[in-house]
Amino acid sequence: MLRMTIPAIRVYLFCILLPLLLVGCGKEEGYEIRDGKVIWHSWRGDGLSGTWSEGVLLDDARGFTILQQQGYAKNAESVFHGSRKLDGADATTFELLDQSSGLAKDTKRVYLSGAVIAGADPATFALTGVEYLGRDNKDYYLGTAPLHVRDMSTFKTVKDNTFCSQDRDHCIWAWNKFDYYVGTQATPMADSNTFQVIQSSYAKDAKQVYFGSTVLAGADAASFQGIGGESGEFAKDAKHVYWNGEVVEGSDAKTFQLLKYRYAKDSKQAYFCYASGSPPLILAGSDAKTFEVIGPSTQGFGYAKDAKYVYQGANVITGADPATFVVDQADPENASDKNQRYRHGEPVK
Fold it and tell me: Is pTM, for the whole model, over 0.85?
């Protein structure tokens, strides 16, 4: 991660600490029963630039039950979510199903954070153990969206997909015998008997390979494998290396390997892999045979060297001597060789 500036750090800390500061001052968003009335407190503004607002939700607090301090509440006649009355909700049968996600139901509807899950059957609706995923006797629901699952009996979710939070647009998280799912989008598969999620956004069956909700044209299913990356973006088959579903042109699939601190290499050259949406960058002139990673830097990059150059991230450290270059383990921003010292990859004058 790139080093943050002092102003950026201050803004970040203010945003993180704001809720704690406000609570410490006796303020907290949510319901309050005071003087026989129900009061709703809310913060209106962005960060520290705003004001507290409070309004009378009900003139009579008798029978008012708070189910979530900042979410659901009800009395004998009505159900509320925050400052909003849920029209048509049945207060007598309304119940909270899950405190963290805000799933709830009454005899007529199922709700998520106050929004109705269209088509969900409250009589058979149940939690699945997967966050924001529920089901009834006819379908599964992600958030408030029905998935239109074609075969309920074979529906399953990926047990461990640690990269999903980093690439939600392509992450394959569930499937049944007919389709697999990226978000709420169902994509038909060619051979359900052999279908498997390889890594994050990649999957395959005996006939073809998939990236997100598309077929990875030209990929060889038999040899296809995931090889990692910070968000599971790298894979390869017998012929090609893939980054986010794109062929890494000029790479050698047989020898390609990911190294520490976003470096990679194959038999021909070395690469630097940015954390952003940029494909691997070929380190021009690099010597793959002697290329090695030699340490981290506190900027989130790393140091590497070959017979000719020393690198910090994708940048060549001008004038550095690879044979004697060493990184200060106590402070990786400091380094030295036989000629001089370096700070942040720049010569110290």
Answer: no
